[in-house]
Structure formats: C-alpha cells, structure tokens
Amino acid sequence: MTLLEPNLHEAADFDHDTDLELRFRAGDEAALREAYDAHGSLVFSICRRSVDSTAAADVTQEVFIAAWKNRERFDSTRGSLASWLSGITRNKIIDHYRSTGREDRRVERIKSAPQPAEPTEKRLEEVTLRMLLADAIDELPDRARNVISMAFFDELTHVEIADRTGIPLGTVKSDIRRSLTRLRTGLGELYVD
Amino acid sequence: MSTDNPSLGDPSEDELFANLAGLAKTIGDADRAREAPPAHIWDAIASGVADPRSLEDNDDTVIDLTRQRTDRQRRSAPATKPARAGSSRSPLLLVAAAIIALVVIGGAVVAGITGTGEDNVVFAGEISNSEMPEPFDGTATATLEIDDDPALVIDFDQELPTDEPVELWLISADGSDIVSLGLVEAGDTEWEWPAELTPADYPLVDLSIEPDDGDPTHSGRSILRGELVSS
Known about the structure:
The structure holds two protein chains of two kinds.
Chain A lengths: L3 H23 L2 H20 L4 H17 L11 H19 L2 H11 L7 H19 L3 H11 L5 H8 L3 H19 L6
Chain B lengths: L10 H14 L4 H4 L7 H11 L20 H6 L14 H15 L15 E8 L11 E6 L5 E6 L9 E6 L6 E6 L6 E3 L11 E6 L12 E6 L1 E2 L1
Antiparallel strand pairs in B: 1-2, 1-8, 1-9, 2-3, 3-6, 4-5, 4-7, 7-8
C-alpha cells in the first residue's frame, strides 16, 4: 500500500534522529562522529558566512569539542541537535569577533558615528535561522514537505492544497500542524516568538 | 497564506505559521548552500575530546537547554512518548497487534450494524473503548454515507478528551496499513472518505491520542476503535 510506505520511512527517520540525540547526550563516542557527519557541514557553512575558512575550521572544531564536553546541557525536547550546535556556533563566532578585535573596532565606529548598532550579531542570527529552517524543511517527510511548501511559498489555502494534491483536507491540516512542530523544534532556542 | 485560509484553530499555531512562512520566504540560495569542513577537522576534534586539557568547563557559549524552560516549550515536549525514541517498536505494529488481540478476544469491537434505514448508509458500526490502551468512557457510532461525496460520519455520545490532540484513522482489515483522516477538532462529526480507499479493505475506524510532538505515525494510544460492517 503506497500510503503506508512513507509513514514507515518517516517513523524510521524520526527514530534515527532522536536515537542519535539520545546517544550523544549519553556520551556514546560513536554518536559524536555521527553528529559531526550529520551537522558538520551546517556548522562549517554557518561559520563561512561570517569568517574566513581558517577561522571557520577553528570554530567548527571548537563547537564540536564544546558540545561534547557540555553534552549534559543538551535537551532534545527543547530543540534539535542541529539547532543546539548552531547556537554554540553563533556564540563561538561572536567570541571570535571579539577576540580578534573586530568587536572593539565596531564599537569605536558606533561611538564615533551615533547610529543603530551594526547588526553583526543580528545578521548572524538571521543567517543561522534561515539555514536551520532550510534544512528542517528539507528533512520533512516528502508529503509534509510538499504540503508545507504549498502553504508557505505558494500561499495556497488548506482546501486548495487538498484539491491540488488529492490529500484529504484533515490530513493537510495534520501535515501542516506536524510540520510546524518539526520546524519549530528544528530552530530550537534560536527561534524567538 | 491567503486571507481565506481557515485558521489552524490555535492562535499560537497561526502565529508560528505566519512567522515561519515569513522566514521561509527569505531563504536564499546561499542559505541552502553547504560546504564540507576540511578533512583534518575531524581528527582535531577527536584529539581534542581525548585530551582533557583542551576542554573547558562551564563554556558559556554552550546553551544550557536544561534550564530556561518556557511554558510553550513544556507543552511541545514529547514527554509522553519517551519509549518511542530509538525504539525498534513500530507504532503500526502496535496497532496491528492490538487488532489481532481484539480478534482473538472476539466480538468485543463490533457491536453490529446500526442500520439507520437510510439508503445511502452502506457501512456502519459501533466504536468503543473495549480493549483499548487508553481509558475513555464514551462510545460512538460510525457510518459511511455514500453520496456524491462519500463521508464518514461519527456520532459521539460524549466529548472527546481535550488535553491532547485526537486523531482519526482508517486501518486495513489485516492491520497492515493505516491512513490518517486528520486531527479531530471539537464538534467535528464528518470526514471526507478518501476516494482511493474502500470500506471493505479499510473497515477499522480508530481514534487515538496523539501528543503534539511532530511524529506523524500512530502513537499506539487508541481510545476508540470499531469496524464498519456492510449493511
């Protein structure tokens, strides 16, 4: 039955992610490597949006070591592992700015020319959120990704999505509701209402 | 979202939808691009975690998710389903097992055809809490009305639980497949019957508690189930 197969795959994907997060927090060293394989590119890519490749490599290394050292601070019910690592990445990049004196120069510039603060940290936050959301949408099950994309990008109503896809209206609503939950988890603490 | 789009019913969900839709529309190609870190980074990480001197206690760049808990986050936490995480249990298998158990017990589910006398009612049955894993005092009558738009109509004798979402499912006779008809809102009594399904192949009607944790599969926490029988 074609309708069944995606559900089983979706369940398997969900369990895998949660299993990795649980093993990471429990200190399974194999989970550290899996987390790096799964999220290393995201962390490094966030860095590359803000710093050069050498600094990006250093920060990526620091992020995973710090995350492992402080893994008891991770709580999968509060956000995904990707969002937690991204939050550490953001903070490490800000530290990097400060340690290299860029922050001081920025402050001096602000002092000399009164204006809204240069949105370095705000821009970093927005970039990180967009990258996390892009990944979270990509990781939705196929049907849910299609439904939420039609709602987000095409601005179709639930009824229009049901008509266009042949999916029952109630299922469309369920898919959207569940997708919102998944996406919200994917953004973790970085999402602020 | 178009202005005529019905609300999801929860203001916080509507706000979340609006916020995420707005953010999603700003995603550009650069946000989707991913660059793999240099190969030597993993070696440096592996060496770093093996060397206690390289690790800093109380690193303030690491967000402590075990604190700062908010009300909204408490509501979204899947605290009711920890056993599913990393488990080899399939919710569908739980459902199938429950069905088999019911068949073995025999006759507990199907109370018979309600027979409304209306010509357009071709399948009907009572759905009850008998042998269900979750307690619930109510019962209901389900009828499949074949008209221009086939609809499953359920008449509940009391309100469904409201503390957690309830979802309506159709299950195949052998328990090998399950299809969601969506979450049940207060006052809902009628659902579109999926055109690609037949009541003979999907005779089991199931309502389950579904924690709002983003998992689209059946939770295994059914409160009502029964069989549609040809009239």
